[in-house]
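Regression check, magnesium ion case 292:
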Amino acid sequence: ESKSEGRSKLKLFDPVTLHSRQLQRQIVGDLREGIRADQLVLYYQPIVELATGNIEGCEALVRWNHPVHGLIMPDQFIPVAEATGLIAELGRWVLRTAMRQLRQWRDDPATQQTVFSMRINVSAADLQSLEFVDDVRDVLLAEGLSPDSLVLELTEGAIIQNNELDRYTLMSLRRLGVGLEIDDFGAGYSSMGYLRKLPVDRVKVDRQFVKDLGKDPSQLEFLAAIQQVIRSCGLEGVWEGIETAQEAELLRSIGCTSGQGYFFGRPLPEADFLARLKATRGHLWPIPEGFT
Ligand code: C2E
Ligand code: MG
Ligand code: MG
Ligand code: MG
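Current build output:
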């Protein structure tokens, strides 16, 4: 995380203090109010096609601009939202806001050359709501965007609950034509078997696997094997947590096609992301002078 993001982290939201019901109730109250008062903001981080260095998508990452406490990171309020049911409202806001944003970029002559898809993170609770599929369909229609403009990122935990309703929702989303991606693959107790069974078309490999690349030569062989498994299941692999040019080069050398990480760009608020898109015309690797 960047320094400014780190500084704004709050003791108030430590999981330990969240055990207090009173405090939790207060945060929930704040968050409900915050969603309605437009205090949530989306930051956007590019996903890059490793063969060309061009942007192929961006991930919308939510932050809470709290009037008193400043910028609060998602790890500190998403769990609260999930535990209280506020996540449905939050999820709808993220979906609507991100797709409206994509529509604007497509309409802007300065950025429409860089046309790409939007990735949003979806909670387990979203998959359990029957309205979720309708929400997705409605937003795409309202913005005049094709289903392949949207990729939903789902953690293994969210998909693997083996709940019939989840399966039904996933199949409906798939039929609708939106992309489905497993996020943070390998972070939990993942089973390779799921890669063949789940109705997804992409896998985002957890950033822990990229972290040791460069230090340990045998790690590259390991990652090449993972990439091969993903490919053999007919899926696309996306590699997250790329922080250096060396990591990007090594991943490209073993046939990885998509990457995301601080090396290509940190998550940025809309105006900064737009400025960078314009300055680079969507070509993010090598990073031009003047950008860090
Ligand atoms: P995620 O979906 O795995 O998102 C990637 C996280 O890794 C982001 O943290 C991003 O800032 C960070 N990251 C990106 N590149 C690098 C890198 O090169 N190095 C390192 N060390 N980190 C990198 P962030 O924004 O704090 O989000 C944390 C998590 O919160 C997300 O993990 C996602 O699970 C959740 N989240 C974020 N936005 C939403 C949302 O709108 N809805 C839901 N349900 N969850 C969200
Ligand atoms: Mg994600
Ligand atoms: Mg991830
Ligand atoms: Mg994560």
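Comparison notes: The beta strands are 40-49, 54-66, 70-72, 117-122, 150-155, 179-185, 202-205, 236-239, 258-260, 268-269. DSSP finds 13 helices and ten strands in the chain. No diff flagged against the previous build.
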